[in-house]
Design goal:
This protein is of the alpha/beta class. The chain contains 11 helices and 10 strands.
């Protein structure tokens, strides 16, 4: 009996590892797949009946069911259920890797909360001037998006309380088509606007950039894949505001993680970082129920590590997972000394809400 239970649990581990190694559309083991592997569906119903190798070893004193310290804690696996969302957090960034480098361990810990919906909004394609290239079959910006989605799934799967598929769709806000990716308690939006370069001038003469749109130097911005065109700063602001309203329902409140646009606190930042945060501030004008955390970015490279070892390891792991998206598509990653200087740094100031109750 002990041996049979051990084999069933091993089968469960094998299925879980296979599921984690597959692409975005692969789900974790369902109850049906567990049954096919010889695992009784009753074993997956709740924590009290899930296999517990250590407990059985202690009870029998036999070696056949020894607990492996490298194995997952089986009793954390349970069938999918409905977890009510009681809070919403928005992480609005310019580039795919911004939240991983500058907003942790905050984002990591928030995604772990099953009753918190974490919404990621990426304003630019982070294409570095490549547009829809350099390889049409696998553009650079798509590889960056893949890495961001991998990192989000990495966190969401740390405590695999239920199985889930990644659902990718194209949705419309104010007539603009935007790519949307949903996984467990996370939602990601990719606006795919042009990378404005660190100085905000873009990569070509009279280039489209968030800074140029904000300053009125260009009249519109078009996504690098031509999926949407935003006519003026107000059009873009209203679109982001519509996303915020939709994702904060029915709670009507949310908190925000942004990169600090104030040069007094965050000197020498990327123009896309600054104008993404200005964009959100404009979208939230008059919304007094939202606390906002502002994170320092590039200038953390020379500051001291100020997180504990566990938080540092978690951040390094998810950044490595994120970089694998580029590597698997044949692009060089940024797993190099400069970007590593951002790891382990968490410098943030928070502006609290001034009113309570719903305002979104």
């Amino acid at each position: 009996m002990i041996k049979a239970s051990y084999i069933g649990a091993a089968g469960l581990l094998t299925l879980a590892l296979v599921a984690c190694s597959r692409g975005a559309s692969t789900s974790a083991p369902t109850q049906e797949s567990l049954a096919q592997a010889g695992q009784s569906s009753a074993l997956a119903t709740d924590a009290s009946t899930a296999p517990n190798l250590l407990g059985r070893t202690q009870a029998t004193g036999r070696n056949s069911g020894r607990a492996d310290p490298e194995a997952s804690p089986w009793n954390r696996i349970r069938p999918q259920g409905i977890t009510p969302i009681t809070s919403v957090v928005f992480n609005v960034v310019a580039h795919a890797d911004d939240w991983a480098l500058f907003m942790n361990p905050n984002v990591y810990n928030e995604v772990l909360q099953e009753n918190t919906k974490s919404v990621f909004i990426y304003t630019t394609a982070g294409d570095g001037g490549a547009g829809s290239g350099p390889t049409p079959q696998q553009p650079y910006f798509v590889a960056r998006e893949d890495g961001a989605n991998r990192a989000v799934r990495f966190i969401a799967n740390v405590t695999p309380a239920f199985s889930s598929d990644t659902v990718t769709t194209r949705v419309k806000f104010r007539g603009h088509t935007i790519r949307k990716v949903v996984y467990k308690n996370t939602v990601s939006y990719f606006l795919r606007l042009n990378d404005g370069a660190p100085d905000g001038q873009g990569y070509t003469d009279n280039a489209q950039s968030l800074q140029h749109l904000y300053e009125g130097k260009v009249k519109q911005m078009t996504a690098v894949d031509n999926s949407a065109t935003y006519v003026g700063w107000n059009d873009l602001t209203s679109t982001v505001a519509s996303i915020i309203t939709a994702e904060s329902r029915p709670i009507g409140t949310a908190s925000f993680n942004l990169m600090d646009p104030d040069p007094f606190y965050n000197d020498g930042d990327h123009s896309d970082h600054q104008h993404t945060s200005l964009l959100v501030q404009a979208s939230l004008k008059g919304k007094t129920c939202v606390p906002i955390s502002y994170f320092q970015t590039y200038d953390t490279s020379w500051q001291a590590v100020n997180v504990d070892t566990d938080d540092l390891l978690n951040q390094a792991a998810l950044f490595g997972v994120m970089e694998s998206g580029k590597g698997d598509s044949g692009y060089p990653g940024t797993w190099e000394p400069f970007h590593k200087t951002f790891l382990g740094k968490n410098y943030v100031r928070t502006v609290p809400a001034t009113t309570s109750g719903a305002c979104l």
